[in-house]
Amino acid sequence: MANEEDDPIIQEIDVFLARSLLEKLYLFQYPIRPASMTYDDVTHLSAKIKPKQQKVELEMAIDTLNPNYCRSKGEQIALNVDGTCTDETSTYSSKLMDKQTFCSSQAASNVSRYAAAVYKKGELHLTPLHGILQLRPSFTYLDKADAKHREREAANEGGDSSQDEAEDDVKQITVRFSRPETEQARQRRVQSYEFLQKRQAEEHWVPLHYYGLKDSRSEHERQYLFSQGHGLAENTELIKSPSEYLMMLMPPSVEEENEKPMAPSNVLSMAQLRTLPLADQIKILMKNVKVMPFSNLLGLLGSGTDPTAVLRCVQQVALLVQGNWVVKSDVLYPKDTSSPHSGVPAEVLCRGRDFVMWKFTQDRWVVRKEVAAVTKLCPEDVKDFLEHMSVARINKGWEFMLPYDEDFVKKHPDIVQRQQMLWMGIQAKLEKVYNLLKEHLTPKKQEAQSAHPLLVSGEQRVNMAKAKVKQNYGQLEKEFQKQKAEMKSNESSAKTDVPNIRIKEEPVSVEEPMDTSAHEGLNNGLVNGLHPAQGSTDPVNGHLPGGCIDRVAQELKAFVSSTFKKQFVLTLSELKRLFNLHLASLPPGHTLFSGISDKMLQDMVLDTGCKQILVPFPPQTAASPDELKVYALWEAGDTYDQHRQVLLEIFSKNYRVRRNVIQNQLSQECGEDLNKQEVDRVLKVSFCSLW
C-alpha cells in the first residue's frame, strides 16, 4: 500500500480498438540505411508481393550523387551483371548500380500480441498487426552475373565444336519408368525442402503501387488507424474482467502443443506415447516392433496397466504365433497402398504375409523359395515379410526370431484357443486363394511337434520326462526288482572278497545326494540317475564298488576342470545345472551315473585349485542356498590371473561395487592404468557367467 501511495496515477487514457485495417496491417522493419540511401518518396521505385507466403520485394533507388557513394565500384558491379551490352533486360540501364532490392522474411510466427498504436487528443487507438516483415538486401543480381558469365563461356566453346554437330545428332536414349509412389514416399516428398522451395517459386508476384508519406492516399488510409466509433458496442473486446484481461495479456502458450506430432512415427517418445489411448499405444508399438512377447509389451506400457485391457486391445492389431504377438498385415499395409518394390496392391501383400505367418504357426523354419513359389510375389517383398518376424540361418532357412512363449500359452488358454480358431479361418482362405497342396498344409515329419518349437525349454523337458516315466512305471519297476535280485546274488557271491574292496562312505545325515529331479528329461531316460540297463553298480547312499571310485573321481575332476577353465566363477546352483547337462550328453551306463552327492562335487571343486568366495550377500536376499555358494578358479594360467584375484578380493568384502572403485583398485594393485574398455574386458572375461 505504501508503494501505491508513493506512485499516484497522473493521467487516465482511454484505449480504443480500431478494426478497419484488421488482417491488412503489416509492419516493415528496414535495415540500417547507408549514408547514400534515403527512404523518402523518390527512393521507392517498385514493389511486389506473394500473398500466400506474405513475401514482399521492394526496389529502392540509391543516391549516386552522394559523396559517400563509390562510383567506380558501382560501375564495376553493373558491368559484371549486364556486361557491355545494354538492352531492355539489363538490370542497370544507366551502367551504374543505382538501385537496391530488398526481400522480406517473417520476423515472428505469432503476431497476435502485437499492435500499432496512435495517440491523439488523449486517446490511444490500437490496430492489431497481421504480420511483421523484416527487409533484407537481396543479391540476386550476383546470380544473374554468374549466369551470364557461364553463357558467354558456353558460346565460346560452342564455336569451336561446331564441326562435331553432325556427329551429335544421333544419341542413345535410356527410357526409365518410375515406380508407383507409396503414401509414405509422397508425404516425405511433400515435406522435403526441395518441394517447398519449388512450391514457393511457383506462386506469382503481384505488383504493388507505392504511395509516399505525404501522398493524399496515404493520408486517407492513415485515418483508418483510428477507431471509427467510440461507442461501447464496438469496443466490447476491451470490456473484460481483471482475470480475463490478464489472460489476454498473457495467454497460455499453445505453440508447443500444436507442434507435437499426434503419434510418433520413426522414433518413439515414450512420454508422448503414454499420453495416447491404450489402443493407439499398442498399435504404434506393434507396428514399430512387429514381433513381441506379451511380457515385453506390458513392460513398455508402464506399471499399472491392466493386462486384461491390453489383451483385449492387442488382439485387434496382432495375431498369436508360437506364443508371441505378431502385428497384423493390414496394419503394416493399409488399404489403397502398394509395395515399394513391385507396386503390388496392399491386398495381395497382406495375403502373402498372412501365408508366412501361418507357416510359422506350423513350424519354426520357413524356406523363402517355397513362400515365393506359393505367393508368386517378387523376392524383395518375400524378404520383407520374413525379416519382420524371423532370422536367416545359413543352409537352414528362416527361423522364427523369438522362442516359444509357453508361459503365456499356459496362463491364457482361452486366448490361445480363440487365436487357433482365427488361424483356421485364415488357413481356409489361403487354401482357396493359393490352392495349397497337402505338403504345404502338414509340417515335416522330423518337426512333427508343431505345437512346440525345436528349442524346448528345460521345464518342457522335465514335464515330458515325467510323463514318459509314468507311462513306463510298471516296466521300470519290474526291471528294478530284477536288478536288485541280481545285485543281492552278486553280493552274496562276493563276500569272500570284501577285504579287497575299498569303499568310500559318506554320512547320509550330513549330505544328501545331489538333486537331479529338476532335470529328469535330460538324463536319456534315467530314473533317479540310474539307467535301466546298468546293474553292475549300486549308487544307493553313495556306496560304490572300489573299481568304480577312481574312474568316477577322474571323470568328475575332468568335468570340473574343463568347466572352470571356460567359466572362471560359478555358483553351486549353476555348476549343478551344467553337470546335469553333461550327464544328459553321456551314453547309457557311464560311470558318472552311479550318483554324485553335493559334498563330492564341492570337494572336487576345491581339489582342482578353486576357492570358495564368501560374498557378503544381504540377509533379505531371495536367492537359494546353492546360489549363495560362489566358487572361483584362483589361477588359470592366463594374463588375467592377477586382475581376477583382485576382483575376487573386492567382491569378498561387498557384493555390490561401483565401476570406478574397481578401476582404481585394479590400477593400484596391478600397477597399470586401465581405461573403461579394459576394465569392462576384465569383468567380462572373469564374471561372464554371473554378471
UniProtKB/TrEMBL annotation:
It comes from Vidua macroura. Residues 146-155 have a biased composition (Basic and acidic residues). InterPro entries: RNA_pol_III_Rpc5, RPC5_C. Residues 444-689 form the DNA-directed RNA polymerase III subunit RPC5 C-terminal domain. PANTHER family: DNA-DIRECTED RNA POLYMERASE III SUBUNIT RPC5, DNA-DIRECTED RNA POLYMERASES III 80 KDA POLYPEPTIDE RNA POLYMERASE III SUBUNIT 5. It comes from the Eukaryota. This is RPC5 polymerase. Residues 146-169 are annotated as: Disordered. GO terms for cellular component: RNA polymerase III complex. GO terms for biological process: tRNA transcription by RNA polymerase III.
